[in-house]
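USER: For my understanding, would you kindly supply a protein sequence with its structure tokens?

ASSISTANT:
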Amino acid sequence: MGAITAVVSKNDENVAKTAVTMLKMLKHKSVETFGLASPTTVMIGNSIRYLQDKEPSSPVLIGHVFSKILMSDVSQPIELDNGTLVFAGRIHSLNMEFPRVEFVAEKLNQSLGNAETLIKDFEGGFAFAVAESGRLIVGRDCSGVYPLYYGENADLAALASERKALWKIGIKEVHSFPPGHTAAVDEHGFKFKFVKALVHAKTRQITIQAAVKKLRRLLQQSVKDRVLGLKEVAVAFSGGLDSSLIAFLAKSFGVGVHLISVSLKNQPEIEYAKKAAEALSLPLHIHLYSEKAVEEVLPRALWLIEESNPVTTSIGIPVFWTAEKTSKMGFKIMFAGQGADELFGGYRRYSNDYVRYGEEFVQKTIFNDIVKMHENNFERDSKICNFHNTELRLPFATYQMAKFAATLPLPLKIEPPNDLLRKTVLRKVAEDIGLPRFIVNKPKRAIQYATGVNKVIKKLAKKKGYSTKEYLQEMFQTIFKGIIT
């Protein structure tokens, strides 16, 4: 896995020092090699200093920070026939156990137009950049599972797996690269091209029985693709519907599943996790934390999630702990249930708005939330997992599942007038495959509340005389002082 960078000078100047600066911002303890490439030259070393001593002179450079997850992963960049390539993330396919960067390189060598083919035809979470003479060709998977950001100023156009690499080189306005797009990047900036992403479509009529059958097939296929070739995986586990479904299906495909649950001490939700793990006959690893642990991890969490939003931060801390424990236990792959609530109407605000504003309003809200899942959830969690050298896999985050969910009638997700459980069709899938009824009917409780993290952050802010928002903003500004100008 690892992280990627790419930069183009708008003034035909050498960007080597800029490219090295970007790579420095992506360094962490699990990095094995750093790579830098012009369109004609590739350099790979085990330190930033090595690259500094051998900086290639070029107005177009791509970079790679390499951390091995699977044995098939290799250091990058790599040479193409007419350029160089960096690729991060994973492509999932039944025909190939673990497609490596060589597969992507072969496709691009056949035709650079295959950059679009990679997005159209292959499911997964990935981003890539090709350095050619005078320009970059960049692409991102259609679900936006792997993080990628871009921005420009008067002198540079650049991209990176983390915002901080762009902030550091003086790019103030940083945006999430649109999923399912490619971009040609040169001295004139970015020229995006739509390839494949979710677009608004009319609701289709379908019975609950047919919807359950289709969703079950989609979910089974997604989990099967993502466990292919693996002997064991970790699952971020709450004992609720989404994580239990993923764990159950992964186990059904013969993979050794280990459930990881984190929480502050004395939180009642951990008992649900114990009961659910016992019912699923899967090993559960529980890790409990103190209020002091929240305070200690908060600066690191803000550094990784790169924003000070209170909700994002309260979710990010449990994700940080889960990825940390997954890594320390020696598991390289972590599954999680992100995306299910947006796809199938899991949030309480949906049912509240259903009563207040009606079906059409909620359908539009859900669709908007689906197309923003990458910004609201996936990028945060992927960056945290990458820091711990853990690969995050999200079975709900597929184009086909999003396309199917977006056209489902709302009553198949939320039963009016006041559905306290929601996610009707997903619960019926869980019941259909044999999950215990107490899991199927467990009400959702958001992770920031279930773990107690949200309450502790409020308490810490109050001690300082701040609101939660003010407290996190001040800490964020301190952490990124000198980086965000």
Q: What stands out?
A: Residues 208-470 form a domain with the Rossmann fold fold (CATH 3.40.50.620). The chain has two domains: 3-194, 208-470. The mean pLDDT is 93. The radius of gyration is 22 Å.
